[in-house]
Amino acid sequence: MEKTRDFKNIFKKLFKNIGNYLFPPQCPYCEKIIDSEQILCDECFHKIHFIHAPICYWCSVPLPIETDTGEKMLCPKCLSKRPFYDMARSAFIYDHFSRLLILKFKYYDRTDLRHVLVHYLLKAGVELFDKTDVVIPVPMYWLRRLKRQYNQSALLAELLAHKIHKEYSDSVLYRTHHTETQTHKTAKERKQNLKDAFQVRNINIIQGKHILLIDDVLTTGATAEACAKALKKNGAKAVYVLTIARAVKS
Ligand SMILES: [Zn+2]
Ligand SMILES: [Zn+2]
Questions:
Q1: What is the domain range of residue 177?
Q2: Closest ligand to 41 CA?
Q3: Of 72, 100, 193, 239, which has the highest C-beta tally within 10 A?
Q4: Using CA atoms, how far apart are residues 152 and 114, in angstroms rounded to an integer?
Q5: CATH number (domain holding residue 100)
Q6: Distance of alpha carbon 150 from alpha carbon 111, whole angstroms
Q7: 41 CA to centre of ligand 1 in angstroms
Q8: Which residues surround ligand 1, an ion (CB under 5 A)?
């Protein structure tokens, strides 16, 4: 048994080395050749704006450094109204660079980028994984999914669930109708646009459970809130949100 495993490992290593030689790893962003241990090239790595402390404990919006007390802090928006979700975390600030990365992943068939993106989700969501029971993606309307062929949030959620050894399900939340793009809408219009947009089925999967909801971008939080509301109404105990990027008002 031991010997077979040794042989398997030797072959695995050998094939990996040959593979690296024939198809050297490339920076997924600029396609420069990179070391096999690297995820992005140095230049692209420095363009990323990571979200780091101090942040709002609930919604993770960055807070001014001078306010850092080392304790749990909340932003003015969360202080005035508690979000329906319990905690949200994001890897990057939503800016020109992260937007392009997400666009490539969403619209240019670069599903391979999910490995890079999940790598950063694993760092950003580290506080959430111990508490998580089930990982689910923010759903796409079925017609849109048919057109796009894949739901980018589902690709991320499935890989992430596998990495953190948690249950994954994309058969819980669904969209009841097509919602217009949220991009140019005000917070109020977004809320209206999403009214009753999400429904829940197979509630046995979420009842009494802690849910980790995966999406690409958190803008005003209206989508995350609408999903959390639907999940909690159907018995989910807690809803955490993890996104690649989050918008920050400049
Ligand atoms: Zn690069
Ligand atoms: Zn907040």
A1: 48-246
A2: 1
A3: 239
A4: 8
A5: 3.40.50.2020
A6: 9
A7: 4
A8: 27, 29-30, 32, 41, 44
